């Protein structure tokens, strides 16, 4: 059975002094879940030796070349990253990343030996229009490359209206989308039933247990509450 994953996303937060938070997290041994923190690229190389998985938040589609300011998946792997988030809604919005770009980045990450956390999710307008599952279908079809396997890919369902807002879907709404994603992956990939499917969007210590009890939720992608060990630890504990 796939191990559960508590994944943090620090976004554009964190200086070297803040890595003490990871040292504190690393002391929380004994939980039978995988813990991952996706850091700004500037901090990844400073984490060697910490008994905690480290990921990045984006990578380029190319292995190297004339792409000023960009970072390739191989470079991230070289400094110790094991995972990379692709298709986060903030990148889809801020950098106009399409499903095709997300799929290309995910392929590049797999080629470099990284595990991708591919983010999908609907806007509030789409939810209220009743098109959530259509949006999910289009993003799964367009963003998840054919080379995805249960070993190299985790899906994160992140309703955009729940990210950083304190709003969380009902457990019935999460259950419906996660069951749908599980069914679609099972239909498309030989090992599709084994893909991890994270929920993301305003997960906190006080709502984590209810979310983790939903079928086909194998963990969480956590933004704000992953920045401080004191906030992230209860979420890890709820998953264990
Ligand atoms: C995220 O950035 O992926 C996220 C889920 O953020 P938050 O937990 O702050 O809503």
TrEMBL record:
Transmembrane segments: none annotated. It is an enzyme of class 5 (isomerase). SUPFAM superfamilies: Triosephosphate isomerase (TIM). Pathway: Carbohydrate metabolism; erythritol degradation; Carbohydrate degradation; glycolysis; D-glyceraldehyde 3-phosphate from glycerone phosphate: step 1/1; Carbohydrate biosynthesis; gluconeogenesis. Signal peptide: none annotated. One of its GO terms (biological process) is gluconeogenesis. The keyword Protein biosynthesis does not apply. Substrate binds at residues 9-11, 164, 202, 223-224. It comes from the Bacteria. It is found in: Cytoplasm. Belongs to the triosephosphate isomerase family. Homodimer. Involved in the gluconeogenesis. Catalyzes stereospecifically the conversion of dihydroxyacetone phosphate (DHAP) to D-glyceraldehyde-3-phosphate (G3P). This is Triosephosphate isomerase. It comes from Yoonia vestfoldensis SKA53. The lineage of its organism: Bacteria, Pseudomonadati, Pseudomonadota, Alphaproteobacteria, Rhodobacterales.
């Amino acid at each position: 059975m796939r191990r559960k994953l508590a994944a943090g996303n620090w976004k554009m937060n964190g200086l070297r002094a803040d890595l003490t938070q990871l040292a504190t997290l690393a002391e929380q041994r004994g939980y039978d879940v995988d813990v991952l923190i996706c850091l700004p690229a500037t901090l990844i190389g400073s984490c060697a030796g910490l008994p905690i998985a480290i990921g990045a938040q984006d990578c380029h589609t190319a292995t190297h070349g004339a792409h000023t300011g960009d970072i390739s998946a191989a470079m991230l792997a070289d400094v110790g990253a094991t995972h990379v988030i692709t298709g986060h809604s903030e990148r889809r919005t801020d950098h106009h990343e399409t499903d095709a770009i997300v799929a290309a980045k995910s392929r590049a990450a797999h080629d470099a030996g990284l595990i991708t956390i591919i983010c999908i999710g609907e806007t509030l307008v789409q939810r209220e229009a009743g098109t959530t599952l259509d949006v999910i279908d289009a993003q799964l079809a367009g963003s998840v490359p054919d080379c995805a396997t249960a070993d190299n890919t985790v899906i994160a369902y992140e309703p955009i209206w729940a990210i950083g807002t304190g709003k969380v879907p009902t457990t019935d709404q999460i259950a419906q989308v996660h069951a749908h994603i599980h069914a679609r992956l099972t239909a498309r990939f030989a090992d599709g039933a084994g893909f991890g499917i994270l929920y993301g969007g305003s997960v906190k210590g006080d709502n984590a247990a209810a979310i983790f009890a939903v079928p086909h939720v194998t963990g969480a992608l956590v933004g704000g509450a992953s920045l401080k060990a004191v906030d992230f630890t209860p979420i890890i504990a709820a998953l264990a």
